[in-house]
Specification:
This protein is of the alpha/beta class. 24% of the residues lie in helices and 31% in strands. It has a single domain, classed as 3-Layer(aba) Sandwich (Dihydrofolate Reductase, subunit A). The longest helix is centred in the middle third of the chain and has 11 residues, at 96-106. The two termini are 15 Å apart.
């Protein structure tokens, strides 16, 4: 079964990142020892889709080594990454529906949507996300990068599960309405 799963940590007031893309606010929750279902999702996924900003953040944070899955990075400037030689990373752009069709054709199964806000909103606008796993962190950022452009992001979804972690994070799982 092909399924697109958006997986993200968001602040209590709906931000993916603080001002200037700051993610340090979320990093402290990783110290809790919980993996928040990350490894389970990766192990059952066939590919990863992420935006350029998320990919750049990983590079700046020192995330290196071979990718566990084929990773597609949405960008308008693929030539900027000509020095990235990992054979499991693909730089792509254009119509989001066609990108998803290509990924599904090459990698049937679950596609792990790993961020960011622009990618999620493009997919929501095209009604392509099947499930959202949102990890709501117990703090307000007040500004930064909003996860969703408006409250309509939840219109085509229903809350199907909720889990409280010892770190204070609440996982909310939303399934797209049929």
């Amino acid at each position: 079964m092909n399924e697109l799963v958006f997986y993200a940590a968001i602040s209590n007031d709906g931000y993916l990142a603080g001002p200037d893309g700051d993610m340090s606010w979320a990093e402290k929750y990783l110290a809790s020892g919980d993996d928040y279902g990350y490894f389970e999702l990766v192990s059952r996924s066939s590919a990863i889709l992420m935006g350029r900003a998320t990919f750049d953040f990983e590079i700046e944070s020192g995330v290196q080594g071979p990718r566990p899955l084929p990773t597609y990075v949405l960008t308008h400037i693929p030539e900027f990454y000509k020095d990235v030689l990992d054979e499991n990373i693909f730089f792509t752009g254009g119509d989001i529906g066609k990108v998803i069709d290509l990924i599904k054709l090459k990698h049937p199964g679950t596609v792990f949507i790993m961020g960011g806000a622009d990618v999620a909103n493009q997919l929501l606008d095209a009604n392509l996300i099947d499930k959202m796993r949102l990890f709501v962190c117990p703090e307000d950022l007040g500004s930064g990068t909003q996860a969703f452009k408006d409250d309509t992001a939840y219109n085509n979804f229903t809350l199907v599960d909720e889990k409280q972690y010892s770190s204070g994070i609440v996982e909310e799982v939303y399934q797209r309405l049929v």
